[in-house]
C-alpha cells in the first residue's frame, strides 16, 4: 500500500474509516434495539448505501483535488522525454499550495528553456567562429605566406637557371622577404595563443596586449598592476587573458573610445581585473541584444563562470563602459577550462 499513488491511499483510508464507523454503528444499534431479522436487513441496507455513497463522494472530491498533481506528473513525464516546451496547466479547482508548486515548476522550465536557447546560440556562434577562423588562417597563409614563399622560390629558380651568383642587393631582398614571412607566421601563432602566457605569465601577456592595442589599432591602453613572480593556475590565467582580450576587442569595434585602462589586483583570496573605456557606452539591460558586443559579453560571462568568477558590467549611453572580473582563487583547484568551449575572437 505504501507504493500506491496518494489518490488511492487517501481513498482507501477514508473508506476504511467509513466501514469501521458503519460496523461500529451497526453493532451499537443491534445492542440497543435487540436483534431481529428486519433490523438486520435494514441496518445492512443503510450500511451498504452509506458506505457506497461515502466512497463515491470521496472518489469525486479527491480526484478533483488531486487533479493538478496528475497534470504535474504528466508534464514531468513529457520533460523526461525531452519536451521542454510543455507546461503544466492550472486546474479549475486547485489548492493554493498546488498552484504555487505548478507556477514554480513552470518557472523552472522557462529558465531551463532560456538556458537551452542561449547554449544553442552560443554553440552556433562557436561553430561559426571556428569556421571563420579557419577561413582567416587559410586566407592569410595563401595570400601572405604562400605568395611570399612562391616569389622567393621563383627568384631562386631563376638564379639557378641562369647560373648567376647572388649579388648583395638580391640577397638583401631575399633576407628582407624571409623576415616578413617569418613575422607573419609569428603573428598568426600569437593570435592563436600568445606564447608569453605560458613563458612569461599573465602580467607580461596583458602588458603586451595593451601595447598591441596602441600599436595596431591606435587605441592607447594604460595597464596597471603590481608585478609579481606569483603564477596563477593555467586555467585562471587563460580565462583572465581571454576576457581582457574580448573586452578590449569590444572597445575597439564598438565603443569609439579614445583611450582605455586595464588594472589587475591579486590578493590571497581573489583576482580583481577592471577594464574601462571612455566610449559611447550602451545599456546592459537592453533586451534581445544580438550585436557582436552582446554575444561577446555572453562569451566572457561564460568564461568567468567556468572558473567560478563573476563578471560585472557597468555602462550607460555616452558614459563609457567598465567591465570588472572577480575570480576566487581557492575555488578553482579542480576546475578546467577548455578552449573550444567558448568563442575566442582573435584580432
Automatic annotation (TrEMBL):
Catalytic activity: ATP + protein L-histidine = ADP + protein N-phospho-L-histidine
Histidine kinase domain ranges (all copies): 240-331
Subcellular location: Cytoplasm; Membrane
EC class name: transferase
InterPro entries noted in UniProt: HAMP_dom, HATPase_C_sf, HATPase_dom, His_kinase_dom, Sensor_HK_TwoCompSys, Sig_transdc_His_kin-like_C, Sig_transdc_His_kin_sub3_dim/P
GO CC, any one term: cytoplasm
Keyword Kinase: yes
EC number from the UniProt entry: 2.7.13.3
TM segment ranges: 6-28, 40-62
Function: Member of the two-component regulatory system NreB/NreC involved in the control of dissimilatory nitrate/nitrite reduction in response to oxygen. NreB functions as a direct oxygen sensor histidine kinase which is autophosphorylated, in the absence of oxygen, probably at the conserved histidine residue, and transfers its phosphate group probably to a conserved aspartate residue of NreC. NreB/NreC activates the expression of the nitrate (narGHJI) and nitrite (nir) reductase operons, as well as the putative nitrate transporter gene narT.
PANTHER family, A to Z: NITRATE/NITRITE SENSOR PROTEIN NARX-RELATED (PTHR24421), NITRATE_NITRITE SENSOR PROTEIN NARQ (PTHR24421:SF10)
The protein's name: Oxygen sensor histidine kinase NreB
Organism of provenance: Nitrolancea hollandica Lb
Lineage of the organism: Bacteria, Pseudomonadati, Thermomicrobiota, Thermomicrobia, Sphaerobacterales
Amino acid at each position: 500500500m505504501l507504493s500506491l499513488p496518494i489518490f488511492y491511499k487517501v481513498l482507501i483510508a477514508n473508506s476504511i474509516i467509513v466501514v469501521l464507523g458503519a460496523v461500529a454503528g451497526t453493532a451499537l444499534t443491534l445492542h440497543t434495539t435487540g436483534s431481529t431479522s428486519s433490523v438486520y436487513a435494514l441496518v445492512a441496507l443503510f450500511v451498504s448505501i452509506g458506505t457506497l455513497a461515502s466512497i463515491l463522494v470521496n472518489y469525486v472530491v479527491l480526484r478533483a483535488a488531486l487533479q493538478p498533481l496528475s497534470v504535474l506528473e504528466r508534464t514531468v513525464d513529457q520533460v523526461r522525454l525531452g519536451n521542454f516546451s510543455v507546461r503544466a496547466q492550472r486546474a479549475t479547482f486547485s489548492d493554493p499550495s498546488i498552484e504555487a508548486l505548478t507556477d514554480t515548476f513552470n518557472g523552472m522550465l522557462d529558465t531551463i528553456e532560456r538556458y537551452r536557447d542561449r547554449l544553442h546560440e552560443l554553440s552556433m556562434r562557436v561553430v561559426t567562429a571556428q569556421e571563420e577562423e579557419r577561413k582567416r588562417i587559410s586566407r592569410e597563409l595563401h595570400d601572405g605566406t604562400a605568395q611570399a614563399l612562391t616569389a622567393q622560390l621563383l627568384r631562386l629558380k631563376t638564379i639557378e637557371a641562369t647560373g648567376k651568383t647572388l649579388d648583395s642587393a638580391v640577397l638583401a631582398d631575399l633576407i628582407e622577404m624571409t623576415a616578413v614571412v617569418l613575422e607573419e607566421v609569428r603573428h598568426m601563432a600569437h593570435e592563436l595563443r600568445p606564447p608569453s602566457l605560458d613563458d612569461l605569465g599573465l602580467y607580461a601577456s596583458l602588458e603586451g596586449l595593451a601595447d598591441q592595442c596602441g600599436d595596431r589599432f591606435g587605441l592607447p591602453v594604460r595597464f596597471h598592476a603590481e608585478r609579481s613572480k606569483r603564477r596563477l593556475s593555467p586555467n585562471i590565467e587563460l580565462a583572465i587573458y581571454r576576457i581582457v582580450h574580448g573586452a578590449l576587442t569590444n572597445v575597439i569595434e564598438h565603443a569609439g573610445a579614445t583611450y582605455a585602462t586595464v588594472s589587475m589586483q591579486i590578493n590571497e583570496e581573489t583576482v580583481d581585473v577592471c577594464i574601462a573605456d571612455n566610449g559611447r557606452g550602451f545599456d546592459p539591460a537592453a533586451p534581445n541584444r544580438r550585436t557582436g558586443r552582446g554575444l561577446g559579453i555572453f562569451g566572457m560571462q561564460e568564461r568567468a563562470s567556468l572558473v567560478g568568477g563573476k563578471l560585472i558590467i557597468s555602462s550607460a549611453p555616452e558614459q563609457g563602459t567598465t567591465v570588472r572580473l572577480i575570480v576566487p582563487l581557492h575555488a578553482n583547484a579542480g576546475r578546467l577550462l577548455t578552449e573550444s568551449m567558448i568563442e575566442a575572437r582573435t584580432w
